Amino acid sequence: MRSLRLYVNIDHVATLREARQTDEPDPVAAALLCQTAGADGITAHLREDRRHIQDRDVERLAAAVRVFNLELASSREIIDLACRLRPYQATLVPERREEVTTEGGLDLEASWKRLRETVTKLSEAGIRVSLFIDPEPRTIEAAHRLAVPAIELHTGRYANTWQVDDTALDELRSGAKQAADLGLSVHAGHGLTVRNVKPVSAIQEIEELNIGHSIVSRAVMIGMQQAVLEMRTAMDQGRGVQPDG
Question: pLDDT digit string (tens) for 142-152?
């Protein structure tokens, strides 16, 4: 049984820091704790409004962590920063200033020309590119035409409805299979918690989960390393992976 990668998004460590405009808690220190606890990679989203992660954080993360996934919109300034720092992976996401958190996947058709230019620029810099999209057949096909190696399926609708309806989970299963059949690596994330992650972890085509808010929230109560271990255990249980020993 293939193990599932866990990338921990440490944005909301920076959110807590920015609430007081101080130097703690440090998202880089949190990222290193996540690595020690077994996270396969670290994710951070540099937003145009810099509401949490700052440019300096991205520079330090790129130098400090083993595997860094930078989430970003198609902003020229941030794209240039990514090309200079060359994280392992760049995940392109939609972004609106008024949203509290990312509300859905990229509209690939509406921003096709700009996305194609951005994907080309990042790829030429040696960065693996992923697109954050909804699990819709037409959108997955469009992602394939953009010639990216990976997509991240938006699990927000599943996270909001999993207790009452299986429709969103079925969409994720179908979307993951379609993408894998097209040769895309399949990632997933948004709104996943210890309580709802197991059915998503059981989808064999999914290789990687990006989880942030839930882990950081639990870390406030039980510590960062324990929160990462707790999530890893739930993922492995959903995947059917037996613990070592």
Answer: 999 999 999 99
